[in-house]
Amino acid sequence: MPLGQIKTATLITAKEHLEEVCVEFAKCERLAFDTESNGFYAHKEKVCLIQISSPTDDFIVDPIAFKDISALGPLFADPKIEKLFHAGEYDVLCLKRDYGFTFANLYDTMIAARVLGTKELGLAAAIERHFGLVISKKLQRADWGKRPLTHEMLRYAQGDTHFLMRLADIQKKLLEEKGRMADAKESFADLAALEPNLKTFDQDGFWKLVGRDDIGGQQMAVLKEIWLYREQQAQSRDRAPFRVMPEDLMVRMAQAMPETREALAAVRGMSPYILERFASGLLAAVEKGKASPPVTRPPSAPAERKRLSDLEWRTFEALRAWRKSRSEKDSVEPVVIMTTENLRVLSIHACRDNGGDPLGPLSELKRNRYGEDILKVMATVRAGKAA
């Protein structure tokens, strides 16, 4: 059935309405969720829309219309209710970040597709493949923080959860047939355990800008002031910093150190929009940077991750080769077998834990499935060293 023929989702714009439907949601064995955020547009990203599908109806919660959506918390935490997402890592992290929700019993249709060895992992591709419906992608970059929401935006959002249960039913059958359900469940548990990394403004972030290696100490002082000025403007205008002015332009302004509006306008990449709105502030930032002491050394870099020893590196490389071979044999992506970080941790543990269990970092599932092969790889590496 085309999306246009599906019953329109119910829009929830009041706390009392949400609490009413959550009473009914609590009776469901499973629910599908998605979120829309405004990180592409706002200085501080926030969840702007939460789509929910029950087995019978679709709903869209507007957390901008009302702030208290705590009624959803018990649903996310209830292990008896299966919560379905597609590519849910971003959604889970945003919901934890903004509302402190905890999660249990998740199912992710993209993770399941990866475990099944599906080449195209996008939801639109899955919907077209299984249900013959082509979903437009033109609203992927919509500003979900703007109000009022258009009918087209609501319809688009509804499509992100409406098909998830039917898609999951198809996947579950295939996962059971291929003996991969346990792999998927392990990844779902990892998804539920993710914790957000709260971002704060880095005052020394200008050291990471591409092209800054080509400018000198006084220019670096100017670049620092332009960097701080852009952040101040982004905050006051509630815009993503890159939408205030691009980073490469900031570097070129620091190189030129313009003293007049005309010189500022001559900087390559300067747009009439930026010139009109920020000329006086930028010139003041340049002046302040020129009057400041030259910045000649970057701040202390964070401690680098300890490099692998020769034996650890050879073990890691051998395990990567084994993973590639095994993933081709099983017709899945290498990450389904084990992540690269898992291989690194395993290599370090096996080489440094003298007399211990070399498979210690592995889950029971991966130990049972791959342990014998991994031990053989490790033995071969050690034999090569002994030789």
Report on this structure.
With 387 residues, the chain is α/β, with parallel strands linked by helices. It has 3 domains: 3-193, Nucleotidyltransferase, domain 5; 205-291, HRDC domain (DNA polymerase, domain 1, Orthogonal Bundle); 310-386, DNA polymerase, domain 1 (Orthogonal Bundle). The chain is built from 17 helices and 6 strands. The protein has a 6-stranded mixed β-sheet with strand order 1-4-3-2-5-6, sandwiched between helices. Helix 4 runs parallel beside helix 7, helix 14 (310-330) crosses helix 16 (340-352) and helix 14 crosses helix 17. It is flat and about 70 Å long. The termini are far apart. 29% of the residues are buried.
Write the layout of secondary structure elements.
Layout: E1 10-12, H1 15-25, E2 30-37, E3 47-53, E4 58-61, H2 73-77, E5 82-85, H3 89-99, E6 106-108, H4 109-115, H5 123-131, H6 151-162, H7 164-177, H8 181-193, H9 217-237, H10 241-244, H11 247-256, H12 261-265, H13 272-291, H14 310-330, H15 334-337, H16 340-352, H17 364-386
Parallel strand pairs: 1-4, 2-5, 5-6
Antiparallel strand pairs: 2-3, 3-4
Helix pairs in contact: 4-7, 9-11, 9-13, 14-16, 14-17
